[in-house]
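Write out a record, focusing on structure:
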Amino acid sequence: MYLKNSLSALMGLWFLMTPWVFGFGDVTNALFTCALFGSLQFVSSMLALGKTGKHMWQNWVCVGCGVVFIVFPNVYHLSFMAFFSFVALGFMTILINYANLYPDSQ
């Protein structure tokens, strides 16, 4: 669980930095959306370190952030590389946190 949540936290930091990496830091709404949801994903992932189960709200918040980041490049019409980055890492965020919500039961 530590590795999955750490990866999710790193992706949250990446989403927080993307406005400057991809050059859309001057678009205020896009900047605030990345800052809000990237930091929300980072904090929620750090709070979820070592915790699993479908009742963990932190992992649900991260799943929601992943959904937002999949929709995000369609709303702001970003470049291809930004689009690919947001969609791919958004899906990875959902999959990683879904794996924490429903771990293998043995």
In short: The chain has a mean pLDDT of 92. Residues 80-101 form the longest helix (22 residues). Helices lie at 2-21, 28-47, 57-76, 80-101. DSSP finds four helices and no strands in the chain.
